[in-house]
Amino acid sequence: MTVRRPLALASASLALLAGLLSAAPAAAEVKVGVAVPRTGPYVTVGEQVLRGVEAAAKDANARGGINGEPIVLDVQDDSCDSNQAVAVANHYVNSGVRLVVGHVCSNASLAASDVYAANGIVMITAASVAAKLTDRGLPTIFRVCGRDDDQAKLSAAILAERFRDRRIAILSDLSPASRTLAAATKDNLNRIGVNEAMSTAFQPTDADDAALADRLKAAGIDVVYYGGDAQEMGRLVRIAAERGFRPQWFGTSAIATPDFAKIAGPASNGVLMTFYLDPSRKPEAQGVVAAFKAQGIEADGSMIYGYAALQALVEAGNFARSTEPGPIAKALHGERFDLVLGPVGFDAKGDITAQGYVLYVWRDGNFTPAKSN
């Protein structure tokens, strides 16, 4: 005789089984925030950092993630805007994200870092160079790139060494980064005993760029140092060339993107620039560079630094055997790790111990290390 279970009982059993299955713990994963500009004038740098982070996450997950937990990225757009950066930081706090790669622009990192520090979140930036970011000594704030005060010292030293007897102009626009670098470079140059022929701030527009180029030409300026970004400096260099003014241009890490050469055109040839040591030339980075090339991607600009930022979090987490920010921050401060940048550590402020800035020259749409005099 066949015994048939009552339909209501069978349904109740299925509901119980479904409840037990839904109550089973989900596989552990570690969320990492990635805060980059995906809109606005710094999209190219943001894309470089993001591609580097994505590649590092893929490689790390293939080896077990962080402390055995797979990495899931939460990518947010801060548009390099301070207020939007704070909103992104608060999103991470409310979402339970405890590790963040970001931000790109220094003003965004400075604003967001206060939120991260107050909530014990580790933030590591691949591109923010403001000295103030780490000078505050916030224990969970790090960077894998250089500092703007170091960049200013190198720029001043190069100006003094190569162009001491030339008429030098130091320009800045209204952006905080440009003003800071121009002021620090001027200060360091003057301390060396070299005085610029002109120091001025301007509002970058087509009309103002043309007027400024004419003014610099009339003043007999031979060398122009400008801390503007790729768009602003690219336009100024191009407009100046169109007006017959071709000085020795000298830029900063803010123009280390192909956008500069695209905007400046042939006038970009010979432009000098300070930028971080090119990690794509280091033996430790060759596997990553080759992987990018296999996808038809050149690992330029800040891409390798984006990779290094996430790689540092992974290595520190695996060393500490934790995905929690406290142990990871402690490991970053106290240990050395083999990254794509080479064997590096982080000092008490959170600055990386890797080699800082070097001099590059633009030629045919790319920048390469400049030869020493």
Helix content: 40-55%
Q: What is the number of helical segments per DSSP (H or I, 4+ residues)? A: 13
Overall mean pLDDT = 91
H-E string: HEHEHEHEHEHEHEHEHEHEHHHEEEE
Q: In this structure, how is the largest beta sheet organized?
A: 7 strands, mixed
Instruction: From the 3D structure, determine the CATH topology of the largest domain.
Output: Rossmann fold
Distance between the termini: 101 Å
The number of distinct structural domains comes to 2
CATH class of the largest domain: Alpha Beta
Say how many strands there are: 14
Protein name: Branched-chain amino acid transport system substrate-binding protein
Organism: Methylorubrum thiocyanatum
Pfam families: Peripla_BP_6
InterPro entries: Leu-bd (IPR028081), Leu_Ile_Val-bd (IPR000709), Peripla_BP_I (IPR028082)
Please describe what this structure looks like.
By secondary structure, the chain is of the alpha/beta class. It has 2 domains: 30-145 and 280-355, Response regulator (Rossmann fold, 3-Layer(aba) Sandwich); 149-270, Response regulator (Rossmann fold), CATH 3.40.50.2300. The protein is 46% helix and 18% strand. It is built from 13 helices and 14 strands. Helix 2 (43-62) packs parallel to helix 12 (303-320), helix 9 (230-242) packs parallel to helix 10 and helix 12 packs across helix 13 (325-334). The longest helix is centred in the first third of the chain and has 20 residues, at 43-62. InterPro entries: Leu-bd, Leu_Ile_Val-bd, Peripla_BP_I. Residues 29-365 form the Leucine-binding protein domain.
